Each structure stands twice: as structure tokens, then as C-alpha cells.
Amino acid sequence: MAWQLYQFPLCPFSRKVRLLLGEKGVGCELLRESPWDQRDEFVDMNPAGQTPVLVDRAQNVVLIDSNAICDFLEETVERATMLPGTAANRAEVRRLVAWFDQKFHDEVGRPLMYERMEKRLVHRQSPDARTLREAMRLANSHLDYVDWLLDHRRWIGGPLFSLADLAAAAHISVADYLGGIDWRGHERTRHWYSGMKSRPSFRPLLGERMEVIVPPDHYDKLDF
Asked: From CA 13, how far away is CA 134, in angstroms rounded?
């Protein structure tokens, strides 16, 4: 199949799919789509107007929603399963993917993205300092939980590398790019994240830059 991925570079759901494609060795053409533009052609593909969307036009396949895309790739690409282990193991992986996709994103990624980027690009407004402080406070609290997970298991989702690690890295990397992560006091998560950044699937993300905001100096450094 000849895949095209409609994605936004700082969309954590796009990043999750890109990481899974990279781990499985599946190539694709990246097409940037800014969700707030709501282009007619994009909304025709996905009425929700959200990234990512994975398309193979030759086969007339259009896949929408990051979790649906990840499920499709797990079912159709045998290499590098990201839902390993027993049924209980897989349930735990799915729980943590949902935790990052919902709680972490709603409380950290979404407000950071809106205040630091969308306000500047779309509304020409300054960010609200109080909202940013609250998102950073919650990010610190959530990293405490990730520290706890990694104190009790080898990887985020259990004994094996999994989709939970990819989802966590996708969401944390976006928050980190937007200056929302204070790594002090989170040595366990920092060590895990340093390893994630060194993976071939992750390296392309580190070189990408948005036109309106520059990430912190440590963002693309493996040893930070």
C-alpha cells in the first residue's frame, strides 16, 4: 500500500501513529494538515476535522482516529507488535493509551497547544499565564504517576515495550516542545524518555520545528 498520513506535527495523536508506523517499518508520505483550518477537502475525509487520517487512494482506504489506525496496523502488519503479552497485559496497555489520550491530553497537551500556539496563529492573542501554570502543575503531577509506573515495571505498560510507550512519548514530547515539562525530580521518566528519543522511529520528530514557537534547548538532546 502507498500510504499518505494527514497529520499536524504537534498533534500527539499524529505522533503516536507516526511512531507506530516507524516501529513497524511502514513508510508513508506526510501531509501537513492544520486542524483549525478545517479545509473542505479534509473535512470531507474526516467530518470531525481532526488529525490524523491515514489514506491509501489506490486501494480506496481511509482510516480515521489514531486508535482505529493503530488497531488496523496491529492487525495487518505482523512486524513489531505493540500490543504484546497476555490479554491482561494488553488491557493494561490500552488503559494507559487511553489515559494519555484523554486525561494527559485534556489537562496538559490541549491547553498548552491552545495557549502557546493556536492563540498566536489563529486568534493573534497572548497566552493566559494562569492557564499555562495550571497545565504545567498538572504535567508535574502526571509525571509523578509515570515515575511510579516505571518504578514498578520495565516499560510504561508492563514488562514489554508497547503502544503505551509510544502514546506516552507522543504526548510528553508535545508538552516538552511547548515548554510545559519541568524535568527536575522526574529522573525515572527522564531516563525512559531519553531512551525513547534515541529510537529510530522517534528521531525524525526531534528535527521538526514550528514556525511560531521554538522548543526548549534540551528538546532534541538525547542526554538532557
From this structure: 22
